[in-house]
Amino acid sequence: VQLQASGGGLVTAGGSLRLSCAASGLTFRGKSMGWFRQAPGKEREFVASSTRSGGTLYTDSVKGRFTVSRDNAKNTFSLQMNNLKPEDTAVYYCAASMRGILSALRESGTYDYWGQGTLVTVSS
Question: How many whole angstroms separate alpha carbon 101 and alpha carbon 87?
């Protein structure tokens, strides 16, 4: 199983980035997917997730700014990030889970597979 995250970079506050996660070696349409992030000196935290049926969940700090989407035909999971803030600076990880309960997808332990991360830096 491989989850390849891409799309990170340097952006000024108020800007946008789109992260993508390319999945291979798994039945993508049967998996829930999630994005987590880890800022320097902090623990990894939940950002957003999508169940295999398309249900979505967001952490409060990104609601209204970030949107997840999935393309089951292309085995990709994306995170559109708008109105970025300096506090969004982190390494972003995508993850896949065999579980489909939306509330459980906030927990990193729910996920079975992880990608390598992509760095997002937001300057003020």
Answer: 28
Each residue's pLDDT tens digit, 90-105: 999 999 999 989 999 9
Please tell me the distance from the alpha carbon of residue 104 to that of residue 88, in angstroms, as a whole number: 23
DSSP code of residue 88: G
* Token pair 């992509």 in the structure block, residue: 118
> Is 38:91 a contact under the CB 8 Å cutoff?
yes
Do the Cβ atoms of 18 and 5 come closer than 8 Å?
Answer: no
Nearest to 37 by CA among 12, 58, 11: 58
Tens of pLDDT along 48-74?
999 999 999 999 999 999 999 999 999
Closest CA to 38 of 89, 86, 78: 89
Residue from 39, 49, 41 nearest 91 by CA: 39
